[in-house]
Amino acid sequence: MMQAALITGASRGLGKALTLAFLNAGYHVAANYCSSEEEVLQIVSTRRESAIAVKADVGDSNEVNAMLETVQRTFGRLDVIICNAGITRDSMLVRQSEADWDLVLKTNLTGCFHIIRAAAPLMIKSGGGHIMNISSISGIKGSEGQAAYSASKAALIGLTITAARELAEYNIRINAVLPGYMLTDMGKNAGRAADKAKQDNILRKYSNPDEIAGWIVSFSGTTGITGQTFNLDSRLL
After folding, report:
1. Pairing of strands 172-178, 129-134
2. Is the pLDDT of residue 187 over 70?
3. Which of 149, 170, 181, 206 is catalytic?
4. CATH number at residue 183
5. Which of 39, 129, 175, 220 is the most buried (most CB within 10 A)?
């Protein structure tokens, strides 16, 4: 039976690359989006037999539950999840608004909690599965002007390890991936941060979304690795 994958934040950047990579690898794919409907529909329109677009704000548990019900109704199983949806609201800590702080944590961290909690029963029914949380090197080293983003990505690593321990008996593997700095829409708008990321990179280059997506697709098929954090960034930890 063809395996099924759910990609959150699938409309652009790494999410778009992941959606295409999993489709090309022969998966059924549920491509999640929150507001960029046109972009996702363009991606899945040529793969109508294999892909669906599913709208949901991952920070809203009711919308996440409805999304997982759609995946179950459409594909009948769920084998891989890539928790990729993420945002940033950059600001120095003392000037960070509480609203922006809450929004970043809600999307980047609580969103993954909602996904894992809602998806676990379907994955158990499917015989297990692999969940990969897209974290960041900022979650390990911190990043000036990104208190909320760094905090959310650090906490995501802790969530990954705890969930991996709790769900191991059900053959659900959960790992975190640090993909490196990419010139996606988010990355291009970061100004000085983009320049610094390239300077700090040993190869003096940015990460390539297609290469990262290819690695994730390959790694998703492993069955004996869980609770780990994989650094695909060439900046030193």
Report:
1. parallel
2. no
3. 149
4. 3.40.50.720
5. 129
Looking at the 3D structure of the chain, how many domains does it have?
A: 1
Cβ(36)–Cβ(86) below 8 Å:
no
Strands 51-55 and 28-33: parallel
Tens-digit pLDDT profile for residues 79-109: 999 999 999 999 999 999 999 999 999 999 9
> 132 in a domain, yes or no?
yes
Q: Is residue 186 part of a domain?
A: yes
DSSP the chain: ---EEEESS-SSHHHHHHHHHHHHTT-EEEEEESS-HHHHHHHHGGGTTTEEEEE--TT-HHHHHHHHHHHHHHHS---EEEE-------B-GGG--HHHHHHHHIIIIIHHHHHHHHHHHHHHHTT-EEEEEE--THHHH--TTBHHHHHHHHHHHHHHHHHHHHHGGGTEEEEEEE-----SHHHHTTTHHHHHHHHHBTTSSPPPHHHHHHHHHHHHT-SS--S-EEE--SB--
Average pLDDT, the chain: 94
Q: Would 171 be classed as within a structural domain? A: yes
* Domain enclosing residue 8, as ranges: 4-231
How confident is the model over 127-168, as pLDDT tens digits?
999 999 999 999 999 988 899 999 999 999 999 999 999 999
| Whether 206 is catalytic | no
Residue-wise pLDDT tens digits, 17-52: 999 999 999 999 999 999 888 999 998 888 878 999
Strand partners for 178? 231
